[in-house]
Design a protein that fits this description.
Layout lengths: L5 H13 L3 E2 L1 H11 L3 H7 L1 H5 L12 E6 L4 E6 L14 H11 L5 E6 L5 H7 L9 E4 L2 E4 H4 L23 E4 L5 H8 L11 E6 L4 E5 L12 H11 L9 E9 L6 H8 L8 E8 L1
Parallel strand pairs: 4-5, 10-11
Antiparallel strand pairs: 1-3, 2-3, 2-4, 5-6, 7-11, 8-9, 8-10
Bound molecules: zinc ion (ZN).
The site of zinc ion (ZN) has 6 residues, from helix 6.
Length: 288
């Protein structure tokens, strides 16, 4: 099987860090030529690169995932993220991290996922919320399969009469805000996916020298696998090779939909896992 040598992996890791875990279609083409392999083999060959972004202080089990966006032909890395001294239910799984990375950066259709280990039940359920998930191909180290095969008799959005899907939800408009926020954060708020609670919400982590990082709420029909905006933003930071308490933070903003807010507690909980005194600015939005 085609694999990158240690030197190539080091270079790819640096490249991924600079691009926050994104490889463009042109870059993938180049890498495919380098390995003379098919796309699925290349996605699997990128898994060790993805896994280097894992932050797993509890399990020390580093998982990598790669989501392929059919519409742009680009790939997005993901890695697991654990929070010390917090409930295990708050961890971000590598598959969630890759899908979140793709979604936040404009992917429209994830058609293939490569994962370094078999996806847990929670992740199968998370992937089941994706638009066109019935056609989702899944590549594991020793098996190429599909979500359909891994999650038969699935419970999903249709069981709750939800016709929206992750990566294909309709954009909402903002009526008013309790505090001014950046235009990019507004866009993430408008594109959050909260069909079950109605709490469109998003987070912006603004750093002094590494730019901004975003997260938006991704709900799930089974509720528990939902990804909070703060978890999503911290996962984005991890994919740039950074940790919250190792970078200077200018501001952290959480914006939620007034009357439906439910994210402050989880945001505070995961922030407590880091040695940072960065305060959370809580903004309420009224949506149209
Ligand atoms: Zn999982």
């Amino acid at each position: 099987m085609a694999v990158f040598n240690p030197q190539q992996l080091k270079k790819l890791e640096q490249q991924a860090k600079r691009n926050r875990g994104h490889f463009s279609h042109a870059q993938l083409n180049e890498l495919q030529a380098q390995l003379s392999c098919d796309l699925d083999t290349l996605l699997k060959a990128l898994l060790p690169v993805a896994a280097t972004f894992s932050q797993a202080p509890i399990s020390h089990f580093n998982v990598g995932a790669v989501a392929y966006d059919k519409t742009t032909g680009g790939a997005y890395l993901g890695a697991n993220l654990e929070f010390s001294h917090q409930a295990l239910s708050l961890v971000v799984h590598a598959e969630q991290s890759a899908i979140n990375n793709a979604w936040l950066n404009g992917a429209n259709e994830i058609s293939r996922m490569a994962i370094s280990d078999a996806p847990c039940g929670y992740c199968r359920q998370f992937m089941n919320e994706l638009d066109k998930c019935a056609e989702l191909a899944i590549m594991l180290p020793t098996l190429n399969t599909s979500l359909k095969e891994l999650l038969p008799s699935a419970f999903g959005p249709q069981d709750l009469d939800n016709s929206q899907r992750l990566l294909a939800s309709t954009q909402s408009n903002i009526k008013s805000l309790s505090h001014e926020i950046s235009d990019t954060l507004k866009t993430h708020l408008q594109n959050a996916y909260a069909p079950y609670t109605g709490n469109l919400s998003a987070v912006e982590i603004s750093t002094q020298s590494h730019g901004q990082f975003y997260g938006r709420y991704a709900e799930n029909a089974a509720y528990s696998p939902s990804l909070s905006p703060m978890q999503g933003a911290l996962s984005q930071l991890a994919l740039a090779g950074l940790k919250l308490d190792e970078v200077a933070i200018n501001a952290i903003t959480l914006v939620e939909t007034k009357g439906y807010e439910n994210q402050q507690a989880v945001a505070d909980a995961v922030l407590k896992s880091y040695a940072t005194d960065a305060a959370l600015l809580h903004v309420l939005a009224e949506m149209e």
